[in-house]
Amino acid sequence: MACIDELNPEVLLRGASFAECRALVEKRCREVYYVDPGYAIFDTHLIGVPPIAVGVEEDTFIILPYTKPCYGTFLIRVPGGEEVERLRRKGRRRP
Amino acid sequence: MTTQAHKDEPALLIFGCPEVPVQAAIGLYLAGRLAEDSYDVLSAGNPSVLALLRVSDWRRHYIGRTIDLDRCIGEVSEKKRDAALCVVFAHNDAGISYAATMRYLLPEARLVVIVFGRNAEELAAGVEFPCEKVMEKAVHNPGKLKKGIDEVFGWRASTS
């Protein structure tokens, strides 16, 4: 499974709150899926206040919140690979 | 005094970034007291936090078992690990996110969120999920925070 750090993530928000991340995903992405905390994607499990908004852009990129204890929450954009289809299968279209 | 009331019940301590000094002191205290209450204590944190705790308590009198935070979240998410009690340390927004995550992943557990640091009041206001809160603007001095924790866990009488 790909490691997020190795996917060369584009940072869209830095030190953001979970609410800011959700708002930007919903504003920016036409294709938004909602998942619960602990959802496994790439090499990590998502952290946050449910429901967590994850976006798909241009059919190939995933936009997701990524939380680290010392650096807070980043909203990042990474190549989605197989995770795009998995997200479409597992995610919910409504919060 | 050791109590058997929680004999071997799993207690999970979720540590945040170690940049606020009171966390390590309170963490060692809490791990020791919960173990004394017969909880099976597991402390989860990033490598820096765990190193601080292990060096401070090199004979493992207090801290007990430890686990990498990401691994712990994964195991709880996959239902490989459970807890009757979960305590989350939060001094930034990430800490609140971890607490919300644990609330979702462990719906039956007793969840205590310890909110501390300079922005404690603002952070505590953002805790909108069911839990017990201990809030104190403590950064360097753990005294008031310890009092709040003692009250929540019913230790006040024995430590005052």
List the domain count of chain A as a whole number. Answer: 1
Share of residues in helices of chain B = 40-55%
Q: Give me the count of strands of chain A.
A: 7
Q: Looking at the structure, what is the overall shape of chain B?
A: globular
- The CATH first-level class of chain B comes to Alpha Beta
Residue ranges of chain A: pLDDT <50 for 5 or more in a row?
A: none
Q: Using only CA atoms, what is the Rg of chain A?
A: 12 Å
Order of strands in the sheet with most strands of chain B: 3-2-1-4-5-6
Spell out the CATH superfamily of chain B: MTH777-like
**Interface with most residues:** A-B, 22 and 30 residues
Instruction: Determine the N-to-C terminus distance of chain A.
Output: 27 Å
Compute the number of helices of chain A. Answer: 2
Q: Helix and strand succession of chain A?
A: EHEEEEEEH
Uncertain stretches of chain B: none
Using only C-alpha atoms, the radius of gyration of chain B works out to 14 Å
Number of domains of chain B: 1
Polypeptide structure, described:
The complex is a heterodimer of chains A (95) and B (160). By secondary structure, chain A is of the alpha+beta class. Chain A has one domain. Chain A contains two helices and seven strands, in the order E-H-E-E-E-E-E-E-H. In chain A, the strands form two sheets. Chain A has a five-stranded antiparallel β-sheet, with helices on both faces. In chain A, strand 6 and strand 7 form a beta hairpin. With 160 residues, chain B is α/β, with parallel strands linked by helices. Chain B has a single domain, classed as Rossmann fold (3-Layer(aba) Sandwich). Chain B is 42% helix and 19% strand. Chain B has seven helices and six strands. Chain B has a six-stranded parallel β-sheet with strand order 3-2-1-4-5-6, sandwiched between helices. Chains A and B meet through strand 4 of A and helix 3 and helix 4 of B.
